[in-house]
Amino acid sequence: MTQHATTPTSALEALAHRLDPAHLSRMEPLAPYTTFRIGGPADLLYNATSADALATAIQHARELEVPWFVLGLGANILVGDRGFRGVVIRNMARAHAITPGGLLHAESGAIMRDLVLDSVAQGWSGLEHYIGIPSTVGGALWQNLHFLSPAPARERTMFIAEVFESCEILDESGVRRVVGPDYVQFGYDESVFHHTRDVVLQATLRLERGDAGDLHRILQENLSWRGARHPWLEVHPSAGSIFKKIADVGAGRLVDQCGLKGFRVGGAAISHMHANIMVNLGGATAADVRALIAHAQAAVHERFGHALEPEIAFVGEF
């Protein structure tokens, strides 16, 4: 969602008066709320602490024609250095519970790590594959969260679609309704939410009973596997994979074969550990990352003829 227009002050003020001031701030830098630690200020930043608050904020923004963006954990996005003109609605709707029959009901701002640990602690299987991946439930459905698993064989990719039962959405017309897999249209890094302005409010996932020992082994092996192949966010902030997968080739492999691991523009660099991940070495700007992306695209196209397409979303003004 790259922006090109300025929101009228009157509309912003009208929206600000409709939102709870205890959860609202103005000209708040967005960098601390993204895994890349990059991004300028939002005109308004609103913390929605329930599914109802999330839906209400979006409805108000739509009515007043104020540009809006729902922010989860801030992974898989690059926020522009000039920030976001309008309202960023930070999804902090995190309530969740598991029924005796294994149905996990979670608001869309619930953090996947919390759900993984809670389900494993209660002996439920289905989410353990996703330990270590920064995502909310809403983000998991948006991108059909996946990981090469189960450990140790890693014979196939596990998708969140496999445990998905249904979700409640606020659709483009402002109606709240429950939809199932046929509506969501899961694909690889894909769902209907890429192509609509629907917003997931809450979801239901179906879990199965699992062996506690096996579940904890998978957690440990997945964390170890990721830690050996991906830069640690705490040390080198990133947005995850930058470019979309190229079947039977691999975007990262092409970048690596161009000798670009470690290549740097300003404070941003292509990771030494994973060539499809760019990291913030400290003080990186969105402009640095965009220049790095362009350099990698040009190098790969010149050498191999492949057009690398970004997987991350570009949010705000650049």
What tags apply to this protein structure?
8 helices, 4-stranded mixed β-sheet, 318 residues, alpha+beta, 3 domains, Uridine Diphospho-n-acetylenolpyruvylglucosamine Reductase, domain 3, Uridine Diphospho-n-acetylenolpyruvylglucosamine Reductase, domain 1, Uridine Diphospho-n-acetylenolpyruvylglucosamine Reductase, domain 2, 5-stranded antiparallel β-sheet
Protein model, in words:
It is a single chain. With 318 residues, this protein is α+β, with helices and mostly antiparallel strands. The protein folds into three domains: 9-91, Uridine Diphospho-n-acetylenolpyruvylglucosamine Reductase, domain 2 (2-Layer Sandwich); 96-229, Uridine Diphospho-n-acetylenolpyruvylglucosamine Reductase, domain 3 (2-Layer Sandwich); 238-315, Uridine Diphospho-n-acetylenolpyruvylglucosamine Reductase, domain 1. It is 28% helix and 26% strand. The chain is built from eight helices and 19 strands. Strands 6-7-13-11-12 form a five-stranded antiparallel β-sheet. It has a four-stranded mixed β-sheet with strand order 1-2-5-3, covered by helices on one side. Strand 9 and strand 10 (156-159) form a beta hairpin. Helix 1 (9-18) runs antiparallel to helix 2. The longest helix has 19 residues, at 286-304.
Task: Compile the SSE list and pairings.
Blueprint: H1 9-18, E1 24-29, E2 41-48, H2 51-64, E3 68-71, E4 77-79, E5 84-91, E6 96-98, E7 103-107, H3 112-121, E8 124-125, H4 137-143, E9 146-149, E10 156-159, E11 164-170, E12 176-179, H5 181-184, E13 199-206, E14 208-209, H6 212-229, E15 238-241, H7 251-257, E16 264-265, E17 268-270, E18 277-280, H8 286-304, E19 313-315
Parallel strand pairs: 2-5, 3-5, 4-19
Antiparallel strand pairs: 1-2, 6-7, 7-13, 8-14, 9-10, 11-12, 11-13, 15-18, 16-17, 17-18
Helix pairs in contact: 1-2
